[in-house]
Structures are given as C-alpha cells and as structure tokens.
Amino acid sequence: MFNTKLNFKMLKNIIAISMLASAYAQAQSLPEALRFIDMEQYANARKSILALPETADNAYYKGDFYVKMSQIDTSSAVESLDTAMTFFNKGISLDPKNALNFVGQGAVIYLQGNWDASAQKFKMASDLSKGKNAQVFFKTGEAYLYKGKKDVALAVFQFENAVRLAPKSTDYLLALGDAYLVSDDGSATRAIKQYGNALSLDSKLAKGHIKTGKIYLQAKNYEEALKNYNKGIEVDPNYSPAYRERAELYFKLKQYRSQAPAEYKKYLGMSDGNYKSKSRFAAMSFKNEDYTSTLEQINVLLKENPSDRVLYRLSAYSNYELGNTSKDTIASKQNFKVGLEQIQNFFNLTAADTTKRISPDYEYYGKLLVKNGNDSLGANYLLKTIAKDTSRFEIYNDLAKAANEKKKYKKAAEYYAKYFKYKKAGLNDLLTWGKAHYFAKEYALSDSVFKKVVVQKPEELLGHKWRSYANEAIDTDKKTGQAIPFYEKYIELANAKDVVKYKDDIIKGYTYMGAYYLNSKQTPKSIEMWKKIGAINPQDENYKFMKKKLVF
Questions:
Q1: What is the pLDDT of residues 304-330, one digit of tens each?
Q2: CA triplet 354, 310, 73: central angle to 5 degrees?
Q3: Distance (Å, rounded) from C-alpha 318 to C-alpha 333?
Q4: Is 113 helix (H, G, I), strand (E, B) or coil?
Q5: DSSP letter at 258?
Q6: How far apart are CA 270 and CA 263, in angstroms?
Q7: How many helices (H) and strands (E) does the chain have?
Q8: In terms of CB atoms within 10 Å, which end of the chain has fewer, N or C?
C-alpha cells in the first residue's frame, strides 16, 4: 500500500534538494555572468544572466546588464534601457522592498535625463536599505559615472560609503579609484592607492594591474605601464581587455608598433569585439599602414553601420594610400575611384556639421580629385587643407611638383613661392623654383631666384648658368648685353673645372657675347668670341657662318 508519510518525507527532501540545486546554480551563474561582462563577452553574459531564476535580485542584475549594454551599443540604447526598466519593474513586483531594483530604475531615469526623478529613486533605495547595504551604494555610484551623464562627486560619495561598509571588496575599491581618477582634481595618487588596496587583497586581480597601468600610461611612464599590463596578463591570461590596453600602449611606442595589430586582434578574438573596438582596430591598422586589412575591416563594419562617417574617412584614406603604392595601374585607378566616392560620402555626411571635418579630410579629397583627373578642384581642396592647418605647408610643395609635371610652370612657381615662406630653400629647391619661373617665361623672377643660388654657393656653376640663361632670355635682341657678366663668370668657373664637360654652355655664352658685340658694332670683340668657339668646336655652325661673314 502507498505510504503517504514516507512519500511526504521524500517530497520534502526532493524540494530541499531542488532548492539547493537552484541556489547553487544561481550562485554559479551570476558570478559567471559578471565575469563574462568583465571579459567583454557580452553574448555569453546575456545567456548566463537571462538563465538566472526569477527572483527580485536576479531581476535587478538582468536589468543592470541591459543598462550596461545601452552604454556599449549606443545605437540600441533606447531599446536596452526600456528592457532594463522592464526587469526592474518586475523585480519590484516580486519584492517591493528590494532596494537594488529602485537603484536600477534610478539609473535608467538618470540616463534618460531626468536628474530629479532619478535622485528620488536612489533615495528610496537608500531608505529601504537603511544605509547599510554596500551594494546599493556601489550600484548608485556606478549610475552616476555613466558616460555622458557623469556626476563624479556623488559617485565618490557612494563608493566611499560602499568601501566603508565592505572594506575588503575589490570591486568597490577599484570603483572608488576610478571615481577619484575622473574627479575634478583628477587625483591619480588617490586612484592608484585604491587600486593598490584592491591588489593587496587579491594580487591576481588582473583588472587592478591594468587600471594601474593605465594611470602610468596617462603619465607617459610607458615602462611602468607595460610592466603592469604584462603583470595583469600573467596573473589572468584570459582577461581580454588587458590585450586591448597593451595593444594601445604598443601603438604609442615605435619599437612595439608593429605588434599592436596582432595584440588587438587577440583581444577581439577573446571578447565579443563590440563595434567600437572593431572600429578602433581598423583605425590602428590604418595607422600601421596595413591598408588592405583596414579596408577589409571597414567593408564589414559598414554593413553593420552604414552611417558611420569615420569609416568613410578611413576608407578614402586607405584607398588613396593603397593606390599610391600599388604597381598595378588598373588596381590603382580603382582604388582612387573608390577613394573619391568614399570621401564624397564622408563630406555628404558632415555637410550639416563641418566641424566634424579635419584638415587631412580636405587633403585626401584634394589628392583623390587630382588622381581622378580633376586637378583644378583638387588643388582647391588641398589649399583648404593649409587654410585649416598651416603646419601642412608641405602641400604647397606637392602642388608645385604636380604643376611642374604637367608643365604648368607659372602655377608651380606660385606654389614654390608660398612653400618657401615656411621652409628655407636649399640649393636644389632654388634651382627648381627658378626653373619654374624660367619655363613660365618669367625671366626677371627666375633671375632673382637664381641669384639666391649664387649667393648661397658662389662656386656652383648652375647658379651662374641659369642667371645667364634668364638674362639672355630678357635680352632677346642681344642689344643690352646684360647676360655678359653672368656668362663670363660661368665660363671662368667652367674652364677651371672641365672645358670638355661644359663646352656646350661655354659655346652658348661666347655665341651670346659674339652676337651682342656684333650688334653693338664692336666687331673685333665679336671676332674674338667666335674664334674662342672655333677653338673648342671648329664644326659649330654659328662659328662657320660668322667666319665666312666676318672673314677672319
């Protein structure tokens, strides 16, 4: 016969075991979920959090997860905060005296911009806990530190109370350190002390080492920063944010810069790789001149967020750089074409707020226009770059070179003139600048530049040669003889160096002087010049003609 007494006893045992199992599962899954959040493995965190049994406390942690997600993925912040509020309301319905859920409601309202209403919720939580619940203080402090809505003084007050009630909580100590760091006085000393207190309680607390390292990084003490980052990874190799921070440090240090992308990639592989992190990795790849990798990442990110203007900027920059270094002409043209489309997309997205544009945006726009055959408009954008940032005066040199290549010598000379207002012109610079004036038929201006060559290096033949050319070009009828002193000096120096090597320009000089003396009725002097030409090259056509004409 069925023994009801025995079965009732068994039923109580089963219920007790179930309750213990549930409590054990909850105890395991909540810390696990919080660990996933620390590791930035948000998909795993969501799964663990939502699997928690339905209790008032668990409702709070479910809601708190979505509050955090609203800060991580701002594109869905409204939806995340609505979901969070649903869980907090549920928690209060399960236990109207659960203080944490009132903190949660306050956090949502605070982020929605209603400071007074949020303060009322935080007060209700404090009253319900009678000021004796450290976690209530801690979570209220967290709410006051959410980005964009920071009220640091109140956060410090909350965290100090949490630490007062639970001085051995490493979470509370780290949070207090964070608040000190962003306070008005930005006290790194007070922050690092709290991090040290946390590490004295748990030396294997990777977060403590990483936060300490970040303070040293801000102080530009890179050696100590790296030491702390390495220690954090040593004590907890699975703590993914450590690799991101070390990657950022590597990127600042030239000797480690090449290692930064691989380190960042490791972080992305160990975490969920949120959009912000992936965007940062793309930017890092660009800075590391890995343009192919940058474009691969951008193409993926644009599918996720096609309105992110920064991605279009990076795509344009990368396409230009890739095209500019490629030996494949067809591929280069395609890069320049796509690059131009992307910079135009960027400018369209920033049309309503041009403050979002920086000087390199105009520079790359200009360069891409030039590469796509629109020289005039391209030059305009490049000039806008300098207008926004005069330190980019090097662009004048680029424009001058481009104009020279296309035989637009007058424009090239104009750009060189502007360029050398910022930079002292060397010998070759002056020669290039002077030639631009010369080929633009601005002979007087070219002479003034070549004169600087002679002043800078009197023994240099080229300065005298081009002064001779410029003055001869002015004296087209050979009537003033103004090029004579320059040719005489050139010939003197050339004869002393190598007559054979410089014979063409020596003959050119004698020819000019012979013509001038003939025009000015100084025939003996003219004959003297022609004889000198004959001594160098008896087959010179001008010499042979004048020999017959003047009969010498």
A1: 899 999 999 999 999 999 999 999 999
A2: 115
A3: 13
A4: coil
A5: G
A6: 11
A7: 29, 0
A8: N
